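Table S7 (text form). Paired inputs.
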Amino acid sequence: MSNLPASSASAAASAPADTHGFKSALSILLGASVWGIAWFPYRVLAAWGLGGMTAAALVSAVAALIALVAFARHLGGLRWSWLFVAIGLAAGVTNAGFVWGSVNGHVMRVLLLFYLTPVWTALFARLFLGEKLSAAGLLLVALALSGAGLMLWTPEVGLPLPARAAEWSGLVGGMGFAVNNVLSRRAGQLYPEMDARLRTVMVYLGCTAVGLPCALWLEPGGVALAPAIGWGGLALVLGLAATLVASNSVVQYGLQRLPANRVSLLMLFEIVIAAVSSWWLATETLSWKEAAGGLCIVAAGALSGLVHRARRGEEGAGGCALQPQ
């Protein structure tokens, strides 16, 4: 997702306490709301002949230009590191998976598979940060995987794997999201003095770098049509890009003032908005089995924040100096 607010959650690591908790929470909810409905303008652009991936690349390129102009005076604080290149590329994979999947598949199924993030975050945190998974963490991973299995299993197919390319796209996008979260946490530990808004520039540059070759590969016809989208298409691209940059900037306010575990809980509001918008705008619904599996995935994501908070409280009581997650 090119907004990718949770990928910057480590910005909360060195931020002062927020005396306006309501404003901070509202900023996160606004960002989640934008991405809960962002699939629809992408579908409109795809219906006009661009294709989902071409629309994603075009919007990301325009958003990158807007972000570069908007945050030009902060670019002097940018620090070079392979971490930021990796964060940008992971953001690109996340955005490509989310957009292509939601344009070409069932929005809620794609989004719920995307939100298997706690599973991949646990694995990648072990790989990149050396963090051990607690017993509670293992139970949450099992809960999320059980929910995915319940949602995907059918008697005809048997093995509970995604049945469509769009669902695989959402799953891979969620993996990219987890990598982004873990690497952003590491970057926040190494470069706490860097302005968090610069991550917005990295995110959109990465989304463009990944999105353009994917569009050329998957939708060469859409790329050829891009210069001829007309004033309506151009206005929608500019409006969507500006909205994403603005919402990302608003979200940074909350990210710098709220604990990351609370941010992860608030971001689940995206699923609520997506459920309502997909029912209202695309008449999509979930079966009882899909809904039950989805609730397991959402519960695992919500409880993971509570587990992290309890663990930090226990370690803090022991006198450890902690890096907020």
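Next pair, protein 2 of 2.
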Amino acid sequence: MHKAQGSEYPVVILPIFMQHYLMLSRNLIYTGLTRAKKLAIVVGTTKAIGLAIRQVRDQERYTYLQDRLKLLSVST
């Protein structure tokens, strides 16, 4: 899905299942749906789709970028 960011496709099929529940989030659904120019098809269970819509992870990023930058500034 992330490889498709910035791109559009005529048809997008978005499979949403519980097997990868840790990855499910509202912004993932949004990204998938907004890639479709003409048609978006969502396939999956009601439970998985509901979970994805309820999960808002826009602010959760664990890159440790700030810590890494501090280490670089100390070592130089």
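Residues 2-75 form a domain with the Rossmann fold fold (CATH 3.40.50.300).
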